[in-house]
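Researcher: Sit down with what I've pasted below and flag anything odd:
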Amino acid sequence: MIEQVSWDRSIEIRSADSGRRLRCGGMLTIRQFPEQTNILRKIGPKTRATKPKIYIVKKGDTLSSIAAQKRVYGDANKWKRIADANHMRDRRSLYVGQRLIIPIYR
């Protein structure tokens, strides 16, 4: 599939008598997609989807403190993953008893 075509006007060859452009340099970007059978061979029959964890919000929890827990990610900076998985715009919009999906990243 051709993804992008771009012309470089600095690499032009013009006719001396008429000034018409004879050739122009450029770049063609082509993307090749793998076939379905190759993808299925790579993942194999034993590859299964994993069920995401559920976390119940407690008093005083923040997305950063939840992400920092060892059983979640062990890194407070990964709070955005939890926010994205739960379609949260404001990370301060947690309430006690809220069920959060904790996506599994390897």
Observations:
- The radius of gyration is 26 Å.
- The chain has a mean pLDDT of 82.
- The longest strand covers residues 2-14.
